[in-house]
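Postdoc handover notes: sequence design on the structure in folder B. Input tokens:
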């Protein structure tokens, strides 16, 4: 609706965005952290199983290497500890046997590829490689650590089995080397120390062999690397002197990594699903939240609307005016505010019931909606008050006045409400805020004040606010206060204006007219303070005071009728008849002497109600007169149905009777019609004899006016009555004489 709502909606949206971002970010973070933790955990398990597997591979490789050496040992043992060998090597020293049985055996054996026999001086007896005599010199081909092994074999003779093995570097690479003292099967060596011979088998750890190991032991990628090669897991090969020769390394199978690779997509997928679940939850939450906010906004919007008319309510108007004034301040435009109060709505509500009243409000709202400019804000302020506010480029009230005229035109037409036709008018107050200089409170106050002025000036009017009104208002408030005090203190007095017989000019009755001598101001006209009393609610107390005083005083003049003016505001009160009955009883006056004068304005607005009220009053025995007839637009024919006892022709008509032929014709016709309906007619405002004669001739049976008497104090009436009685007495005596 208003700019403030729009901005607040925008800020809500901003807030919502940042909340959504924060929530999404938190979800993403949580999912990421959980993913990381799970992956780290799996990674740890993977690492651990990798480590376990590598350790197992290490053991397998070390075992394979040992087996490689052990196989050589076993073969060597079979060849060296043999009776035939001992015989042929030591006793026969059969070089040919040695060559064919030991040397040439190295030709295609998988178990050894070199075979040497050396004596105690480490001199080779034979040296065969792959079944052929060696080309290289033995001491050049082997690393000297070979001799350390031979020495060990030589020494172990004392302790037991004279067989040793180890890894030695040769020109062809790393080789497992076994050295065994040649002897009989029983272990006996048939020659003394110094004459012994040693059988040496060499088995090179070449790539073929390594591949074989790799295949046999299922160690993938098993290979030989230099001793300085860096590897977490490796089996080192060291010679008998402790010198590192090389390392066996393999390709880690990393089974953990494999399971990690397999598990990872599952984990990521699962956590992705969890993440998606949260996102879906979030989206559902957002949708629910948006719906809630929409409902909230609707409720808020609803709280700015009037249920009955569908227009904005007071709060809605407040916001709208604030927004427009703000805008006018910014763009130098103007804001026009019309306050509108229906005339006579209360009566329609009272006489036809709330259903009709509600329908009327809706009908007026619908009519206004059509009349106001498209950019106008239309509000109902409760009861029968409406407001229209709209921006304009012009800095005067022109557009508001034009709209006001249209509204008044529209409302002056009779409205069809259900089966009824009702007439409502409206009073309109206009205020403006050029360039937004008048703020909302002041603008509303001014429009309200102007509307009040319009009401005061008579209904169905429109008034633009003027600064003088404020001074006037203050003056009025002071007047109201003084009047209240005057009523309480019973400082109001009554004047009585005679009503005379049209033919004899005898006083037949008096009209009571209220008088107020305001302290410090002098006499104030009832035409000034009666409207104030009517709009401030003082009229009931005032009216009762007048009625009571008039009835009391009338006891002085038992032969006179007493006429009392009754304001529509009094008449409207359903308890009015009861008040009247009470006063009649209190003052012990004969009801038939009392005439209540009411004006036609109220009657037209509330025909049903009026009829009812008049019936109740007439039931008490009082008379009811239609006052000020001819100042309005109604016909006698229409007014007859209310059962008036008398009609008083308004002063404005009698005034012109001799000068204006049209007035005269109308007056004549009216009085004739009233007479034909058996309604007696009083003419008021007779200031000259001629006027009196004319109206008597037209048919008025009673006259009132300055020509006969101004309103005077009760003593004066008493004096005149006495004079009249004396006159009559004289006349009667003259007639008798
Ligand atoms: P109204 O009921 O039409 O009363 C007649 C008014 O016309 C009186 O004015 C009276 O002084 C004046 N008037 C009478 N004859 C002549 C004449 O020949 N020439 C001129 N120029 N004026 C004449 P007043 O007393 O000032 O009262 C004015 C109005 O105030 C009354 O008009 C009546 O509507 C109202 N009013 C007066 N007293 C009361 C009251 O006690 N209750 C109520 N509700 N209204 C009252
Ligand atoms: Ca009167
Ligand atoms: Ca009058």
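Designed sequence:
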């Amino acid at each position: 609706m208003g700019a403030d709502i729009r901005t607040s909606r925008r800020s809500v949206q901003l807030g919502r965005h940042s909340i959504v971002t924060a929530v999404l970010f938190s979800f993403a973070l949580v999912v990421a952290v959980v993913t990381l933790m799970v992956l780290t955990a799996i990674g740890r398990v993977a690492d651990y199983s990798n480590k376990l597997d590598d350790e197992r591979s290490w053991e397998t490789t070390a075992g394979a290497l040992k087996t490689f050496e052990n196989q050589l040992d076993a073969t060597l043992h079979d060849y060296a500890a043999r009776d035939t060998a001992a015989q042929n090597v030591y006793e026969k020293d059969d070089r040919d046997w040695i060559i064919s049985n030991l040397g040439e055996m190295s030709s295609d054996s998988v178990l050894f590829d070199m075979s040497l026999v050396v004596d105690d001086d480490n001199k080779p007896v034979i040296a065969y490689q792959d079944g052929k005599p060696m080309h290289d010199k033995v001491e050049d081909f082997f690393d000297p650590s070979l001799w350390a092994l031979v020495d060990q074999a030589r020494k172990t003779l004392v302790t037991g089995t004279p067989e040793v093995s180890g890894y030695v570097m040769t020109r062809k690479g790393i080789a497992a080397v076994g050295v065994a003292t040649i002897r009989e099967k029983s272990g006996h060596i048939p020659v003394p120390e110094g004459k012994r011979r040693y059988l040496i088998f060499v088995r090179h750890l070449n790539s073929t062999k390594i591949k074989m190991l790799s295949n046999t032991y299922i160690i993938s990628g098993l290979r030989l690397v230099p001793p300085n090669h860096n590897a977490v897991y490796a089996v080192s090969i060291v010679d008998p002197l402790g010198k590192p020769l090389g390392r066996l390394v393999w390709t880690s199978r990393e089974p953990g990594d494999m399971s990690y690779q397999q598990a990872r997509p599952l984990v990521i997928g699962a956590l992705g699903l969890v993440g998606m679940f949260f996102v879906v939850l979030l989206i559902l939450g957002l949708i629910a939240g948006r719906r809630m906010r929409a409902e909230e906004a609707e409720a808020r919007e609803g709280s700015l609307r009037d249920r009955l008319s569908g227009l904005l309510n007071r709060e809605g108007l407040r916001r709208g005016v604030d927004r427009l004034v703000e805008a006018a301040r910014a763009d130098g435009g103007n804001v026009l505010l019309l306050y509108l109060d229906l005339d006579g709505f209360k009566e329609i509500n009272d006489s036809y019931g709330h259903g009709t009243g509600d329908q009327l409000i809706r009908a007026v709202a619908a009519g206004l909606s059509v009349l106001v400019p498209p950019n106008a804000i239309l509000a109902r302020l409760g009861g029968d008050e409406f407001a229209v506010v709209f921006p304009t480029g012009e800095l005067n009230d022109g557009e508001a006045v034009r709209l006001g005229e249209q509204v008044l035109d529209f409302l002056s037409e009779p409205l069809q409400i259900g089966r009824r036709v009702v007439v409502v008018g409206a009073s309109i107050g206009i205020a403006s805020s050029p360039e937004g200089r008048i703020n909302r409170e002041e603008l509303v106050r001014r429009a309200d004040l102007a509307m009040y002025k319009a009401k005061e000036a008579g209904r169905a009017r429109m008034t633009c606010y003027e600064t003088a009104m404020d001074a006037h208002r203050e003056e009025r408030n002071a007047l109201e206060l003084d009047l209240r005090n005057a009523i309480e203190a019973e400082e109001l007095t009554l004047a009585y204006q005679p009503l005379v017989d049209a033919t004899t000019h005898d006083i037949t009755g008096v009209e009571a007219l209220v008088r107020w001598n305001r302290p410090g101001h002098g006499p104030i006209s009832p035409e000034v303070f009666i409207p104030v009393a009517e709009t401030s609610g003082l009229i009931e107390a005032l009216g009762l005071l007048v009625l009571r005083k008039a009835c009391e005083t009338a006891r002085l003049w038992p032969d006179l009728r007493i006429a009392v003016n009754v304001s529509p505001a009094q008449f409207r009160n359903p308890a009015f008849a009861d008040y009247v009955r009470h006063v009649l009883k209190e003052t012990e006056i004969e009801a038939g002497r009392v005439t209540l004068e009411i004006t036609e304005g109220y009657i037209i607005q509330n025909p049903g109600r009026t009829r009812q009220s008049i019936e109740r009053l007439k039931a008490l025995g009082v008379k009811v007169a239609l006052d000020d007839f001819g100042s309005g637009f109604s016909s006698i024919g229409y007014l007859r149905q209310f059962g008036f006892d008398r009609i008083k022709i308004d002063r404005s008509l009698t005034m012109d009777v001799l000068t204006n032929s049209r007035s005269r014709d109308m007056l004549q016709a009216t009085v004739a019609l009233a007479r034909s309906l058996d309604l007696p007619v009083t003419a008021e405002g007779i200031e000259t004899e001629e006027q009196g004669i004319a109206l008597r001739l037209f048919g008025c049976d009673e006259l009132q006016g300055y020509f006969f008497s101004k309103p005077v104090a009760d003593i004066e009436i008493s004096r005149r009555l006495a004079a009249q009685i004396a006159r009559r007495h004289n006349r009667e005596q003259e007639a008798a004489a």
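Context for whoever picks this up: Residues 511, 565, 597, 627 surround calcium ion (ligand 2) (CB under 6 Å). Don't rerun without checking with the PI first.
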